[in-house]
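ARCHIVE CARD
Drawer: 12
Card no.: 0347
Subject: one protein chain, sequence and derived structure
Cross-reference: see card 0346
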Amino acid sequence: MIVRDLEQARNSERRIVSPDGNWESTRMLLKNDNMGFSFHITTIYEGADFRMHYQNHLESVYCVSGEGEVETLADGKVYPIKPGTLYILDKHDEHILRASKEMIMACVFNPPLSGTEVHNSEGAYELEAPAIAV
């Protein structure tokens, strides 16, 4: 059994802050946990507006708190995000995420992240990054 505490994880190397200042992510479950997916609690800062395109990963995102929207670039559709909203990037959807109020999101990635990833120039995570120790 694996048991982790969010506050303890936030005060460790499991907390990753984006270089662009749009988000921070606490990686609760990672590739080296051998579950086949990773689980993160991510904060999207108020006013964030950024493009992502997870070419190597599928992602499910559940909004715990805050407000914003996600826009799919293939069709220009805009979906509101509020507590209780789940959106799933099941086709490696290129998208823009906007936070009108700081959002706390629970995120699942498949394949799992190793731990230290941040978005590359295309808004994606690379398949391999240095792992965080268990």
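Annotation on reverse: The two ends are 13 Å apart (CA to CA). The beta strands are 15-17, 23-29, 38-44, 49-53, 58-72, 78-81, 86-89, 94-110.
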